[in-house]
Amino acid sequence: MLVAEVFDINKNKVSEIELNEFVFGADVNDSVIYDVVKMQMASRRLGTAATKGRSDVSGGGKKPWRQKGTGRARSGTSRSPIWRGGGIVFGPVPRDYKYKVPKKIRKNALRSVLSLKYQGQKLLVLKEIPLEEIKTKKFKEVVDRFGLKKALFITPERNEILEKSSRNIAGIKMLRSEGINVYDVLNHEHLVIVEQAVKKLEGALIS
Question: What pTM was computed for the model?
Answer without folding.
Answer: 0.83
